[in-house]
Amino acid sequence: MTAKPLLILIAGPYRSGTNGDPQAMAANLARLETAAWPVFAAGHLPVIGEWIALPVLRSADAGLTDPLADQVLYPTADRLLAHCDAVLRLPGKSAGADQDVATARRRGLPVYHDVAEIPRRSPQETM
């Protein structure tokens, strides 16, 4: 068990394999989000880079097919990782998620591949 709640980046496919199809990207984001509750239930705070990057893109009047997207999506995850305590890498081919894992390892952060690997906080600590 761990005393401090961890900020855990959930990393996995978002744009990969979608050929720019918005519905496929939405399905990938929904898949990433299914890991949010188990991370939270373990006493930690889940975060997904797209939760931050997508509003940033919208505020620049840009979308995922805009050239600006690559200048926002990857840097957002990198900046976010400066604040994270760990990464949960979900299955699936993703250059961005692989980059997140490499960054986390360089920074000495743990990388989990299953929610069951994440240390749980005791119930009284999660209140």
Overview of this protein structure:
With 127 residues, this protein is of the alpha/beta class. The protein has helices at 22-33, 36-41, 49-59, 68-81, 95-106; strands at residues 7-11, 45-47, 86-89, 111-112. It has a 4-stranded parallel beta sheet with strand order 2-1-3-4. Strand 3, helix 5 and strand 4 (111-112) form a beta-alpha-beta unit.
Topology of this protein?
Layout: E1 7-11, H1 22-33, H2 36-41, E2 45-47, H3 49-59, H4 68-81, E3 86-89, H5 95-106, E4 111-112
Parallel strand pairs: 1-2, 1-3, 3-4
Helix pairs in contact: 3-4, 4-5
Query: Based on CA inertia axes, which overall geometry fits?
Result: globular
Query: How many beta-strand elements?
Result: 4
Strand order of the largest sheet: 2-1-3-4
The average pLDDT is 92
Question: How widely separated are the two ends?
Answer: 15 Å
Helix/strand order: EHHEHHEHE
Taking Cα atoms only, what radius of gyration do you get, to the nearest Å? 15 Å
Helix content: 40-55%
Biggest β-sheet strands, sense, barrel: 4 strands, parallel
List the main descriptive attributes of the protein structure presented here.
127 residues; alpha/beta; 4-stranded parallel sheet; 5 helices; 4 strands; 43% helix; globular
Short account of what is shown:
The protein has helices spanning 22-33, 36-41, 49-59, 68-81, 95-106; strands spanning 7-11, 45-47, 86-89, 111-112. It has 127 residues and is of the alpha/beta class. Strands 2-1-3-4 form a four-stranded parallel beta sheet.
